[in-house]
Design a protein that fits this description.
Layout: E1 2-4, E2 28-30, E3 33-41, E4 45-52, E5 58-65, H1 66-69, H2 73-86, E6 96-101, E7 105-111, H3 118-123, H4 130-149, E8 152-153, E9 162-164, E10 173-175, E11 182-183, H5 204-208, H6 215-230, H7 240-248, H8 256-259, H9 264-273, H10 284-289, H11 291-294, H12 304-334
Antiparallel strand pairs: 1-2, 3-4, 4-5, 5-7, 6-7, 8-11, 9-10
Family: Belongs to the protein kinase superfamily.
Binding site for ATP: 62
Region (Disordered): 1-23
Length: 339
């Protein structure tokens, strides 16, 4: 991979214009990073492990295909600008290390979180109590409050985007993936209109297309809290249409079989995060001050057996659902077209 000399591998004020179709060889320099195994990906990017050629330090490289984003360059610009603003400002936010572009791709180099996803880590433990969930949510709410104070809405908070910095038992939890994040000015109340995110974690006002603001992140925190305490989403359904219908109807419940060992304080916190009216929903600072996050929670029942059972069942369902969807797509592709 070769870096464009016009954009040296440093954090800049934002992505420059897409490279011209032909760039003279004199303007190209060897890239400072060598990419390796794939860590994840999305519709227009792939995330790979990257090693700095000189220091041998490991990082994560988000590689964005220029062709796929040429009609929506604002997404990339926002992500770069947002990461620049918040990097190093809060211990629980993934840090941007570098940014540059090549002829075909844009590269975002961030610290490499090696500790795994939140729920995988929880399920690998020997126990998990309500107090543990409160501690994790307090950390997340603190980072979200920092984002909101900086005029940023994350818009894609979910367990998969909560990563541990390292495998150390005391490792910090990090909010990652700011690809859908957006700047937001409180004076332009409810100016965001784009429907984006993961349906199970999206607030009702996003589906209603009436405009939304920072409170959508608090809704997501409510869903994550629910998920942490029982192992399944409050709006889990058999199809996305049913998920959206349940969100719009604010239709969820605390099933006795899985919630009997959870405090009324935790349930109250969830209800106030999942308030249908965004104006009545907790703010980030109010969430931090809620008794569930601000007071010491006594040791109660070990929630892990039921959480793990439900989480593993969810993974199996998702795997089976994706397999059926892939089969149906393949079947559709190979079936002869009717004339």
């Amino acid at each position: 991979m070769q870096a464009n000399h016009q954009n040296t591998p440093q954090i800049s004020d934002g992505p420059s214009a897409p490279a011209q179709k032909s760039i003279s060889k004199e303007k190209l320099l060897p890239c400072k990073y060598r990419t390796g195994r794939v860590l994840g990906g999305g519709s227009y990017s792939v995330v790979k492990e990257a090693v700095h050629v000189e220091t041998k330090e490991l990082y994560a490289a988000k590689i964005i295909n220029k062709k796929l984003v040429e009609k929506k360059p604002e997404f990339v610009k926002n992500e770069i600008t947002i990461l620049k603003r918040i990097s190093c400002g809060h211990p629980n936010i993934l840090r941007l290390v570098d940014y540059f572009e090549t002829v075909n791709n844009l590269y975002l180099i961030t610290e490499l979180a090696t500790g795994g996803e939140l729920f995988d880590r929880i399920c690998a433990q020997g126990s998990f109590y309500e107090a543990d969930a409160a501690r994790l949510i307090r950390t997340t709410a603190s980072a979200v409050n920092y984002l909101h104070e900086n005029g940023i809405v994350h818009r894609d908070l979910k367990p998969e985007n909560l990563l541990y910095r390292s495998k150390d038992p005391e490792s910090e939890l990090l909010i990652a993936d700011f690809g859908l994040s957006q700047f937001y000015d409180d004076s332009q109340y409810y100016m965001l209109m784009t429907a984006c995110g993961t349906p199970e974690y999206m607030a009702p006002e996003i589906f209603r297309r009436v405009g939304y603001g920072k409170s959508v992140d608090i809704w997501s925190i409510g869903v994550i809290t629910y998920f942490l305490l029982c192992g399944y989403s409050p709006f889990v359904r058999s199809s996305q249409v049913e998920v959206i219908e349940a969100v719009l109807a604010n239709q969820y419940e605390f099933h006795e079989a899985y919630w009997s060992g959870v405090s009324s304080t935790a349930k109250d916190f969830i209800r106030k995060c999942l308030e249908d009216d965004p104006a009545k929903r907790l703010t980030a600072i109010e969430a931090i001050q809620h008794p569930f996050l601000s007071t010491k929670i006594p040791a109660t029942a070990n929630l892990l057996p039921k959480v793990r059972e439900n989480f593993n069942a969810r993974k199996k369902f998702r795997k089976a659902f994706n397999a059926v969807r892939a089969f149906n797509t393949l079947k559709k592709d190979i079936e002869p077209k009717s004339r």
